[in-house]
Amino acid sequence: MPRTIWSGAISFGLVTVPINVVSATEDHSVRFHQYHLEDMGRVRVRKFCETEDREVSGDEIGKGYQLTKEQVIPISDDELSSLPLPTAKAIEIEAFVPLQSVGPIRIGEGYYLQPSGQVAAKPYKLLRQALSRSAKVAVAKYAWSGRERLGLLRVRDDVIVLHAMRWPDEIRDPTELLPPPVELSDEEIDGALALMDTMTREDLEGEEFRDTYTEAVQEIIEAKREHRELPAAPEPAEPDRVVDLMAALQESVQKAKASRGEDAEVHDLPKTKKAAKKTTAKKQPAARTRSDAKTSGRKPRRSA
User: Fold this and answer.
1) How high is the mean pLDDT of the chain?
2) pTM exceeding 0.70
3) Measured between alpha carbons, how far is 162 from 21 in angstroms, rounded to an integer?
4) pLDDT in tens, 230-254
5) Which CDD domains match (predicted)?
């Protein structure tokens, strides 16, 4: 069972839902320590006081705000936890919005909200079902770790999830990163859509969605522990130089289908405009004769 990160309540109008916050994710990365290469002694970071030039323990360390070079304002944890803010003790719901209105770049880490005790069961279920039926998400404010944050509440598998959100001014403007103006044909866009259709799937379950980097690191550790030869690194594939974008899309569709065990034969992607014009010209009906015009009841034009 994951440990509780924070305890408080969800404030939903006049409804209060006592909750415990636990992490919704796990990190399975391989962790390394620092060692002295000569004797493999552990290298540790020690905390020293610059004024007394000595190592200090954790209970001697506190927070402070540097006002000037000579003046530091001490701030205690008790003072931070007693801030005159409603969000210091509660997750205050401010609004309900469609999920599509929230840019994905603003959504961060996820946390499960667990009802705290029997008294929270009914209001927790009320909020959960209201969110599910409305197809909306709640936007809330809360204060953790010395700052007020914005959060998004949604439902996942009958549990309310809180996602940390970034404030609007924390999102950088990407304008300067845009590529120079280029022209794309409708055929090229249709080709990209055809490739997307080939690569579309219903879920993210499968061998290709696993952490191969961590597995490779674990293989190295195991090989060194058993004094075996390290696994050989694969040769990096040389990226193909894209000359014909349509040809690259066609080949990508074929490879995508083959990798999924499907028939590698695919329909030709849309032809270029020049080819399309030729095809259209061949299919144009022949000019009508005078007899055709009489049959249709129209007078034939006189030749000049």
Assistant:
1) 81
2) no
3) 9
4) 888 777 766 656 567 778 878 888 8
5) KU_like
